[in-house]
Amino acid sequence: MNQPRSTPAVSKTIQVAPGVHQVPLGFVNAYLIETDGELSIFDAGFAVDRDDIAAAIREIGYEPSDLKRVVMSHNHVDHSDGAIGLRELTGARLLLSKLDGDQAAKGLAGHSEMNVKEGFEELVASQMTDPEFAAKMGGFGPPPTPITAFEVDAHLEPGSAVEGLGDSLVIAAPGHCKGQVAVLLKRDGGILLTGDAAVNFGFIGIAPVAEDLALAQESFEALAQHDFEVACFGHGEALISGASASFKAAVEA
Questions:
Q1: Which of 14, 33, 128, 224 pairs as cysteine with 247 (C-beta 3.0–4.6 A)?
Q2: pLDDT-based confidence at residue 10 (cuts at 50, 70, 90)
Q3: Residue 101: other Cβ atoms inside 10 A
């Protein structure tokens, strides 16, 4: 690990747990994860986020070339578009579920059109028309979205650990996207990396858009059965204490 640098005027990272750093990229988050001296990132943002991610890596005392792997929760462009550029910049391995990896190899992101949860139409419309998000979406259309095809280096297998993340668990969490997974780091009371299987939009629950809303709710309820102190969302602020209790409360509400 490189020597820590002085804190920049504008921080690129927020430490949410020991060795876990949120990287806010506008509407979406990535997470840098330190495990036994190795560096990984959970989700890749958009291709245009590459320089911000590189700056975040340097901020926590590493160089981009130290990044060993890009672990993607699912293959929607706001989480996977940056994968190719990060591999070119760092040499990192790309990890994705088989379902979503097969789509990526075909040059597609996502599997089917998205449905909006009843009562959330205005919220979704405001998010989709946010100037920064709209600019990053650029010419991308709705899922299944044509993308530059890419091959992954390994698949994330539900029930298995993630290479390089120590004692960890891949959890199948379909609904928002057919190949969506969450990852539970079994350290420091449990750290759940949700991708878009859950969001924090002033409420804890499923993302208000999904390929299959009912299945997304089932997956959220299954996540709530696990024990974890911290929850790291693809969208929204992380919960840094009592996270699984908040999930259980959301299920019971």
A1: 224
A2: low
A3: 23
